[in-house]
Amino acid sequence: MSFSNFFISRPIFATVLAIILTLVGTMAMRILPIEQYPSVVPPTVSVQAQFPGADAETVAQTVAAPLAEAINGVEDMLYMTSNSADNGLMSLSVAFNIGTDGDINTINVNNRVQGALSRLPEAVQSQGVSVSLRSDSILMLVALTSPSGDYNNVYMQNYATLNILDELRQVPGVGNAEVLGGGEFAMRIWMDPDKLAQYDLTPSEVASAIRAQNTEIPAGNLAATPQSEPRAYTYTITAGGRLSDTDDFRNIYLRTNPDGSSLRLEDVARIELGASFYGVDARLNGATMTPIIINQQPGANALETAEAVRTTMEELSGRFPPGLEYVTPYDTTLFIDASVETVLKTFIEAFLIVIVILFIFLQNWRFTVIAMSVVPVSVIGTFAGFYLFDFSINLLTLFALVLSIGIVVDDAILVVENVERVLSEEDDISVRDATIRAMKEVGGPVIATSLIMAAVFVPVAFLGGFTGQIYQQFAITVAISVALSALMALTFTPALSAIFIKHNLHKTKQSAFKRAITTPLRLFDRFFAGFTAVYMWFVKKLVRFWVLALALTVMTGVGSYWLYINTPATLVPETDQGIVLVSVSLPDAASLDRTQNYMAKLSAAIEDIPGVQYSSAVAGYDILSSAVNTARGIMFVNMHPWAERELTADQLVGKIMQLGASIDGGSAMAFNVPPIMGLSTTGGFTGYLQSFDGASPRELYEASLQIMGAANQHPALNRVFSTFNVNVPSYRAEIDQQKALSYGVALENISSALSNTFGNGFVNFFSYQNRNFQVYLQNEDEFRKTPDDVSNVYVRGGNGERIPLSEFVTLERQVGPSVVSRFGVYAGAQFQGGAAPGFSSAEAIQAMEEVVQDTLGSNWGMGWTGTAYQESNLGNTATLAIVFGILMVFLILAAQYESWSLPLAVLTATPFAFLGGIGGIALRGLDTSVYVQIGMLVVVGLAAKNAILIVEFAELQRKEQGKSIREAAITAAELRFRPIVMTSLAFIFGTLPLALATGASDVSSHHIGTTVAVGMASVAILGSLFIPSFYAVIATVSDWLYHKRHPDQGRDNEQAALGHDQP
């Protein structure tokens, strides 16, 4: 073709073009972000509020419900969940559509929150409601430790807050950094009720005195304008301000006497700089630990960000006080780094395997080098496309590049093989003329096959949501690499062929040594000649008995569909990421000390398991409900690198479950890390049982018990449980309002007295190290242990007398929820679970929905979050992508051949592609997943590519050689069989390292590698047999129809028109 002739005549131009593409790709590769997955996690906005002293139900009703009603329906919202804990904390999360602007989402949510503030309790309003964009993509966890025990958690938490967090938040790529546990500094006023009684004081009076003396006083100015007479200076008057240390608070005056004596705060209370919260305790290998969670900024380079964090921490550690150290107990980049290393190793293996395959078939090192020269140019040049499309280097794009090795070399093989064939058939032709003639023959197929490969992936570029992001990055990567390979096959490859290929090289007399070396290659040629003869025997039979070929193809299609619908499916396969999460549960209302003791025993037992590196534990935090709970805990169990252990993450999960059951006092549930961090908290599914008719917490709990019982009996479900419980022991303050009013005591004074003594009574703020912290009132611990301690709390009556609360307040024992959850605007019971062996996650989700409907009826339902939400809303996206991909192939072929019938011959290879792809997955016992669906698209494109080679050459035989349809079909099959097998084997063996990968991300590699390798093998073996038969049938029918419609035209005109718009 004339386009290629230009580059054949100007080889330096072609070489410069290849060099420029390589250089541009190299430069782009240096600045591209590296991450595990592209941005497939929905942006999440977090709303947090605190109602001091309120129980979970009260917080849910008075705080969570009004906010949820106001926020519900905000633009681009996917779902909304909230958790209200019995420590007064409320956390609400709103997930938005993938690809939306997080800042806009935050503004929209904040506007809704501001409109609902007036409906919230005053205590909540006074503390403020925070709205922030939350990054669920945890990059790493850095922890401060004190191995020698010199520092407690309070000191380390606040040291991190004051000296580390701001530095980490400024690191490029860090989205946020926060201390897990959040025990910030607070001025704790520990009151002694006996001393308050001695001095005739009440807690409310103490709080009032603190507020009066710990405040900013704007005193004004001296000589401020306007003045009757001009003044030279203006002075600001200061009148003290917020207190800043414990001595200031100790000297707060509670009373002054006429004799000059005074009563200070230190006379009735113990004052210390403590923590705002004591409900969480973290330990690493038994030593005190303060964990700092670091979230990655969307689009940032994970590896570079993690390295920058390590560098920053190393610099900051130089300023640490003696005895304070830091460690990194959790680092996702270790898995990312290992995964990238595994894929790069696979890439190199695939590259070397393809070289060997090409050399065996071409049997000439010049041909091999020329064909392989397009691989580095196409692959490296693809990184420039990443930059243009704002892609990152991630597992999906790296998988695509590995597969591209076997794809991009196809066009070059086609050119080199055709040049070699022309030279072998004509002795007198020059290499340059042979190259020009070869390009005239294969230029069209190169363009056509490249368009086909790109067309398969065009529809997925328009898919939105989770699957759209997954498909787009993979598909466009393949499309870019194929486009570049086609460009190189039309420019660089013919230029090199015209220069480096030697004529009549096969006729050169070989030395004995060379003959000995090439003996295996000659034996291979004999074997392949015999194999080709067998192939041609089958082709001739199938061309003759086309009805049998049609029947077998229909059976293949039906069998493929049956396999597909009966193979378990999942969204993204779980993989061994080198870390296991453990959720620890103790009896409800268990103390933090008790939880710590159980977790210490469990941690010690886990660290004795071979393959475990260390464990870190956080007592007092429930990862499943994302709430503070003294009877719950979370553990991170780190494993040794993949090459240094035989233990898998799944095996470790089973061992930890057994250990948890063997230790008295609690239980442990172990989970694999979710395949995509930030999409879900744990592996398996997470959902909420909802009541649409306003069920009470008790009714919701009873319904959850029924669902748990029914779900765990279902064959498709495994380990289904709920974290919701309304039987948590607690006490309720019963107030005799009539009696209280008869004493002249206002009800709000009673609530204030209870909060200031038994709870964290918030007073106001104080200043410390240029920051504002809270002041809290509370009784000393010995005065708030039993219900009888209410008699030590006093309020002031209407006559000025102190009255004990026990006169009209009694503490009654009750049971209730420690955490109340909501999904959307409905109360919900959170459920966790997974699929039973042999069943897919999609089947498990459907089974849960069926269990709810069958057990409870239509007034109940399941609301899904995270991975389960994406999977339940996936619908037929994958099917549509494949169908539209096939449709695009058909349309492009129709345009190329100017025929509506001949493209059908190409598409007949599709059933064999599906049979191999899904058959390989089924034989290996794998689930269908997004990776399998992507692999199917690749195989469909490659199947069409192989079919085009046969159909295109058959058409040439008819048009230029005047052969009959059957002869043309058989001749094309024979001529193109060797290059088809060569390119197919190059692709199959090039993808085998993926199918057989070990180490990090091996499961994902197995899914996509098995699909494309076995699928391509099926296309090469079966598709190549049947395509000539279908071409003959379709061309014959088209010929007959055309002849019938144009009976007066001669055979020559008929042949000239053949292939045009006939049927």
Automatic annotation (TrEMBL):
<feature type="transmembrane region" description="Helical">
    <location>
        <begin position="343"/>
        <end position="362"/>
    </location>
</feature>
<dbReference type="GO" id="GO:0005886">
    <property type="term" value="C:plasma membrane"/>
</dbReference>
<keyword id="KW-1003">Cell membrane</keyword>
<keyword id="KW-0472">Membrane</keyword>
<feature type="transmembrane region" description="Helical">
    <location>
        <begin position="1016"/>
        <end position="1042"/>
    </location>
</feature>
<dbReference type="GO" id="GO:0009636">
    <property type="term" value="P:response to toxic substance"/>
</dbReference>
<feature type="transmembrane region" description="Helical">
    <location>
        <begin position="975"/>
        <end position="996"/>
    </location>
</feature>
<feature type="transmembrane region" description="Helical">
    <location>
        <begin position="545"/>
        <end position="564"/>
    </location>
</feature>
<keyword id="KW-1133">Transmembrane helix</keyword>
<feature type="transmembrane region" description="Helical">
    <location>
        <begin position="930"/>
        <end position="954"/>
    </location>
</feature>
<protein>
    <recommendedName>
        <fullName>Efflux pump membrane transporter</fullName>
    </recommendedName>
</protein>
<feature type="transmembrane region" description="Helical">
    <location>
        <begin position="442"/>
        <end position="462"/>
    </location>
</feature>
<feature type="transmembrane region" description="Helical">
    <location>
        <begin position="474"/>
        <end position="501"/>
    </location>
</feature>
<keyword id="KW-0813">Transport</keyword>
<feature type="transmembrane region" description="Helical">
    <location>
        <begin position="395"/>
        <end position="416"/>
    </location>
</feature>
<comment type="similarity">
    <text>Belongs to the resistance-nodulation-cell division (RND) (TC 2.A.6) family.</text>
</comment>
<feature type="transmembrane region" description="Helical">
    <location>
        <begin position="878"/>
        <end position="897"/>
    </location>
</feature>
<dbReference type="GO" id="GO:0015562">
    <property type="term" value="F:efflux transmembrane transporter activity"/>
</dbReference>
<dbReference type="Pfam" id="PF00873">
    <property type="entry name" value="ACR_tran"/>
</dbReference>
<feature type="transmembrane region" description="Helical">
    <location>
        <begin position="369"/>
        <end position="389"/>
    </location>
</feature>
<dbReference type="InterPro" id="IPR000731">
    <property type="entry name" value="SSD"/>
</dbReference>
<keyword id="KW-0812">Transmembrane</keyword>
<dbReference type="InterPro" id="IPR001036">
    <property type="entry name" value="Acrflvin-R"/>
</dbReference>
<feature type="domain" description="SSD">
    <location>
        <begin position="369"/>
        <end position="499"/>
    </location>
</feature>
<dbReference type="GO" id="GO:0042910">
    <property type="term" value="F:xenobiotic transmembrane transporter activity"/>
</dbReference>
<feature type="transmembrane region" description="Helical">
    <location>
        <begin position="904"/>
        <end position="924"/>
    </location>
</feature>
<keyword id="KW-0997">Cell inner membrane</keyword>
<dbReference type="InterPro" id="IPR004764">
    <property type="entry name" value="MdtF-like"/>
</dbReference>
<dbReference type="InterPro" id="IPR027463">
    <property type="entry name" value="AcrB_DN_DC_subdom"/>
</dbReference>
